[in-house]
Amino acid sequence: MFVYFRSKGLVKDNLKGIAKLMYEDVSEEGWDQENLTKRNLDFTIESIQYIDLYTKKLMKTEKGTVLLNEALDNMVNRIGAYIGEVIKRTINQDFTWYEFNSVYHHSKSLACVAETTRPYTLLYSKKKDRAILPLNVVEQYLKGDSAYTSLQEYVEKMIRAYSQ
After folding, report:
1. Are 139 and 72 in contact (CB under 8 A)?
2. How crowded is the C-beta side of 117, counted as CA atoms within 13 Å?
3. Residue 96 forms beta bridges with which residues?
4. CB crowding 53-85: b at 16 or more within 10 Å, else e
């Protein structure tokens, strides 16, 4: 009997559709209905102001903290996918969504990231061997454990760093 071992390659995980849920699947609350719209969330850097207002509302209201406690993974995926798409579209390079573990075992770009980091999907450039981890940053931010004062600050920093 022959056993064939094949090295696992990069595994794509497109989050573009999840990013759209920020305006396609909105709660019944007035603020959300008025602000989380396709017109406001147009994947531009400026649209991150609405995401920042939304995350602050989540983190500072009783209803928001209950939602975060019950659906943190869902909120991290939606918000992280949205800001990741803004970064990806703005820098306009070869970044693609991939599963964390496939990049971790394929690339040196995550050498400084602990393997115990929660394996979220990330943006990765095969050509430049560079990774951006918006979902991880959003999780830290929503838990109040972020180096960034806003998601706008994070997005702008990533765009400056990866546009070169």
Report:
1. yes
2. 22
3. 124
4. ebbebbeeeeebeebbeeeeeebbbbbbbbbbb
Identify which of 47, 75, 50, 78 has the alpha carbon closest to the alpha carbon of residue 63. 75
- pLDDT tens readout for residues 90-101: 998 999 999 988
How far is CA 158 from each of CA 37, 60, 150, rounded to the nearest angstrom? Answer: 24, 26, 13
Amino acid at 152: Q
Give the C-alpha distances (Å, rounded to integers) separating 71 from 25, 66, 77: 14, 8, 10
Residue with tokens 């969330």: 41
pLDDT tens per residue, range 25-59: 999 999 999 999 999 999 999 999 999 999 999 99
> What is residue 96's three-state secondary structure?
strand
Read off the tokens for 77. Answer: 């995926």
